[in-house]
Structure formats: structure tokens, C-alpha cells
Amino acid sequence: MKQKKRAILIGRSMAGKTTLCQVLYHEELKYHKTQTVQLINDSMIDTPGEYLERARMRGALNVTAVDADLIIFVQDAAEGGTMFPPGYASNFAKPCIGIITKSDKGNRKMLDNAADFLKQAGAEHVFVTSSVLGTGFDELRSWLEDFGGQGGML
């Protein structure tokens, strides 16, 4: 039996990392602030937004990502900017995808900007989701299951 692959979720506070996990695992949506690194269903590593937001804490992301097979950058569609520097994915030397969350709160230009931010940071694929509308998750689930192989990541 193959061990499940793991992904690490990296993004700002309130970007929707925890909600993303809840939707992917068909759990009830309940907001709670992620205070520490959490392993969800032995496949998703949920990280506090402060690890990305505070430069002195970014090293914690690099250390935590050692246990991941996939890097996932999470970008809120309505956020005017980004915390992901160009080429940021190269810090991890692992496959990286981007997920735009809260697409229901963004217009076409905002979604295009968010996708550009993620691509510039090094995301190989970008998925657009809305947990409110339930959109974008079929494609994302399918991709994650293919990435994980035999039994998938989910």
C-alpha cells in the first residue's frame, strides 16, 4: 500500500486555506483561525497565514514543507495584491499549484490578477474555487487524485 501524498497550504491569513480543506473533505464549513501547523486527514498541511506574512517566520514554511510532496499557494480573489514573491516556488524544489479562493467575490480582472500572481510565484496550474458557490472543486479534486496516484491525496 502506497503512502498518501501530502500537500502544504501556504497563503495569507483569511485566504481560505482551512475552508478549502473543509470543502475538499466534505466537512461542515466552520471558521476558525489556524494558530499552528495542522495535519488534516494525513494529507493536507494547513499553515497559519502569519508564516507567509512575516518575513522572519517564512523559514517555518520551508521546514514544514519538507514533509510535503506538493506546494499549494492559496490566493484570495478579492485581495488587491499578493504575498508571494516572483519565483517563490523555487524555494521548495517541489511541484507547486495555485488555488484562487473566494472567486464569487472577484470580477474577471481580479481573477486574472490573482492567477498572474500565482503563476509569477511559480504555480504550474491554477484552480479557481468558491466555497460559497461550491465551484471549481471537481476539477481540483480530480487533479489532486491524479497527483497522488493509487488512492489519491484525498
From TrEMBL:
The keyword 4Fe-4S does not apply. SUPFAM superfamilies: P-loop containing nucleoside triphosphate hydrolases. CDD domains: Ras_like_GTPase. GO terms for biological process: biogenic amine metabolic process. Signal peptide: none annotated. Keywords: Nucleotide-binding. Belongs to the EutP/PduV family. This is Ethanolamine utilization protein EutP. It comes from Eisenbergiella tayi.
